[in-house]
């Protein structure tokens, strides 16, 4: 699955228009697409006519820790049109940051929810709010590609550095480096200023600027007001043609389908480098060895601050029940009561999701990456 976040803290630069119509265009090209509305203002939800969805089926319900309100991501999916589903938003989403402010790993909530749910989409497109807060951070952390719409206004490039700074921070802090692409929007070739701005954007982004340019097109405005994509509204309009071209260009982009493979590889290499292979101390069970009515999961990571084991047995959830205990020799262990069977799992070492390097058995998952496998 490729995850594409549409982000820019500047309002009115075309994020929601891009999110709605790029999703619809990729779906029209035969790919299964999920659009996640991550803006409490819910413009994408309105723009695709999904605003009468039940209030308890929204991205808020996916991300909240409130047990009464929490729902599985798959329960919150609304069907929009052939190949296109969406998870709507509503104003409750604006309370989420406050609600989760003391929660560990809150910035990875969206990433973990998508990963844990094993959704079967080829593309997930995320429409971000016009701010650089908690919600946008969650989207950037989940995304393999970040598209930054830039309109032809005088101040359009002013805040972009901050957004790129946030992406850089995610790279440094959590080893996650999405590909960044700028998208020129609201381009009016009759105005000389559009040309001047486009040149500035080219100079700023160089080869990170997408070839497709989204022209100013009033049909885009009209279609949003009708609650349908521009492709359904008028498939011959410039808005429709531009978004079809954009969809093709995004599909052609390589190297983003890893979801989190690059992350895994980095983590894997770091772990290998940091932890030379040492003979295991006999008192410690080998990783994920079967024990009475369960399995022991263990990781040799003396430098780590916290380690969790997540898998299909605990819905890929990071919480107290999935936390490993550190032993005197620096290794981490957890015994889980499991009925015999086949389980998929991963370790989360200081926020990094990684395979069990002591267990060669692994299987591909729907994201095209691997999970460790334990059968007993
Ligand atoms: N290419 C375009 N041509 C004409 N109007 C557009 C275009 N892109 C966006 N708009 C309009 O500009 C306004 C802001 O766009 P929107 O996509 O909602 O931006 P954002 O989500 O970044 O705030 C909306 O009224 C939208 O219909
Ligand atoms: Mg918007």
Question: Which helices and strands occur, and which strands form pairs?
Answer:
Blueprint: E1 2-6, H1 15-28, E2 33-37, H2 43-47, H3 59-63, E3 78-81, E4 84-87, H4 96-99, H5 109-117, E5 123-127, H6 134-142, E6 145-151, H7 160-174, E7 179-187, H8 192-205, E8 209-215, H9 218-226, H10 230-233, H11 238-252, H12 261-274, E9 289-291, E10 294-300, E11 307-311, E12 325-326, E13 331-337, E14 342-349, E15 352-354, E16 362-364, E17 370-375
Parallel strand pairs: 1-5, 1-6, 2-4, 2-5, 6-7, 7-8
Antiparallel strand pairs: 3-4, 9-10, 10-13, 11-14, 12-13, 14-15, 14-17, 16-17
Helix pairs in contact: 1-11, 5-6
This protein binds adenosine-5'-diphosphate and magnesium ion.
Adenosine-5'-diphosphate is lined by residues 11-17, 43, 130, 185-186, 214, 216-218, 220-221, 224.
Report on this structure:
With 376 residues, this protein is α/β, with parallel strands linked by helices. It folds into two domains: 2-252, P-loop containing nucleotide triphosphate hydrolases (Rossmann fold), CATH 3.40.50.300; 261-375, Immunoglobulin-like, CATH 2.60.40.10. The protein has twelve helices and 17 strands. It has helices spanning 15-28, 43-47, 59-63, 96-99, 109-117, 134-142, 160-174, 192-205, 218-226, 230-233, 238-252, 261-274, and strands at 2-6, 33-37, 78-81, 84-87, 123-127, 145-151, 179-187, 209-215, 289-291, 294-300, 307-311, 325-326, 331-337, 342-349, 352-354, 362-364, 370-375. Helix 1 packs across helix 11 (238-252). The protein is elongated, with a radius of gyration of 22 Å. The protein starts with a strand and ends with a strand. The chain binds adenosine-5'-diphosphate and magnesium ion. Adenosine-5'-diphosphate is lined by residues 11-17, 43, 130, 185-186, 214, 216-218, 220-221, 224.
């Amino acid at each position: 699955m490729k995850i594409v976040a549409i982000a820019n803290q500047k309002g009115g630069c075309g994020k929601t228009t891009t999110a709605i119509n790029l999703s619809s265009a990729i779906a029209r090209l035969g790919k299964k697409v999920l659009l996640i509305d991550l803006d409490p203002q819910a413009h994408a939800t309105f723009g695709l006519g999904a605003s009468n969805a039940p209030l308890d089926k929204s991205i808020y319900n996916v991300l909240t820790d409130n047990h009464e309100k929490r729902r599985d991501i798959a329960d919150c999916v609304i069907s929009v049109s052939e190949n296109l589903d969406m998870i709507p938003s509503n104003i409750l989403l604006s309370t989420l940051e406050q609600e989760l402010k003391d929660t560990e790993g809150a910035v990875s909530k969206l990433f973990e929810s998508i990963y844990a749910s094993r959704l079967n989409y080829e593309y997930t497109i995320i429409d971000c709010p016009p701010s650089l807060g908690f919600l946008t951070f969650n989207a950037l952390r989940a995304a393999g590609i970040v598209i930054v719409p830039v309109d032809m206004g005088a101040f359009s490039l002013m805040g972009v550095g901050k957004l790129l700074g946030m992406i850089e921070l995610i790279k440094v802090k959590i080893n996650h480096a999405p590909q960044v692409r700028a998208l020129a929007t609201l381009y009016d070739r009759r105005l000389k200023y559009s040309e001047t701005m486009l040149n500035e954007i080219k100079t700023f982004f160089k080869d990170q600027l997408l070839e497709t340019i989204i022209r100013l097109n009033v049909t885009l405005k009209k279609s949003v007001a009708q609650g349908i994509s521009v492709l359904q509204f008028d498939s011959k309009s410039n808005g429709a043609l531009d978004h079809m071209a954009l969809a093709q260009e995004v599909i052609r982009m390589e190297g983003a389908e890893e979801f989190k493979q690059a992350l895994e590889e980095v983590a894997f290499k770091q772990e290998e480098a940091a932890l030379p292979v040492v003979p295991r101390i006999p008192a410690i069970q080998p990783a994920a060895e079967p024990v009475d009515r369960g399995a022991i999961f263990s990781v040799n990571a003396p430098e780590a601050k916290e380690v969790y084991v997540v898998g299909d047995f605990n819905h890929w959830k990071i919480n107290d029940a999935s936390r490993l205990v550190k032993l005197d020799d620096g290794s981490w262990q957890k015994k889980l009561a499991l009925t015999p069977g086949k389980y998929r799992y991963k370790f989360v070492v200081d926020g990094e999701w990684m395979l069990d390097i002591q267990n060669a058995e692994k299987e591909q998952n729907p994201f095209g990456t691997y999970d460790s496998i334990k059968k007993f």
